[in-house]
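Private note to self, pasted from the team thread so I don't lose it. Backbone tokens:
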């Protein structure tokens, strides 16, 4: 099993939105490295749900990959903000996964607290903060879960 962290602005799509839906598509990713991580995800991989551009920004809960990568339909919709006219239908440029709600933490684990933990200094979150989809090591995953319990 692999571990990941995926970011969303809570006013756009929050862990509470996912909790109500139970399963949702993670669409709109328009960064090639993040897209490649999406394509590497496997069913049942675990994911930290991160609320970005929030007060506080931080890890809000856990979800699971419910469906592996498939073409993101928003890239073909001219009415959608994520439309990409350069993405051909026969060779889609962008992918999405479906995620399944698993758990909301009692409180968000703020970014400031994560920054203060020496064992988490190597996290992609702290090194490439703007990347919306990123891997998490097993050691980082276990430590974050201990911090959130």
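Design output:
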């Amino acid at each position: 099993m692999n571990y990941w962290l995926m970011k969303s602005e809570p006013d756009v799509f929050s862990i509470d939105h996912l909790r109500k839906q139970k399963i949702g598509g993670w669409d709109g990713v328009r960064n090639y490295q993040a897209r490649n991580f999406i394509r590497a995800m496997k069913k049942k991989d675990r994911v930290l749900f991160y609320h970005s551009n929030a007060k506080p920004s931080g890890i809000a809960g856990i979800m699971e990959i419910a469906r592996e990568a498939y073409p993101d339909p928003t890239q073909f919709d001219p009415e959608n903000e994520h439309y990409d006219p350069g993405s051909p239908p026969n060779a889609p440029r962008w992918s999405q996964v479906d995620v399944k709600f698993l758990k909301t933490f009692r409180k968000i684990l703020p970014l400031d607290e994560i920054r203060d933990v020496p064992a988490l200094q190597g996290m992609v979150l702290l090194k490439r903060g703007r990347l919306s989809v990123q891997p998490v090591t097993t050691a980082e995953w276990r430590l974050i879960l201990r911090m959130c319990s």
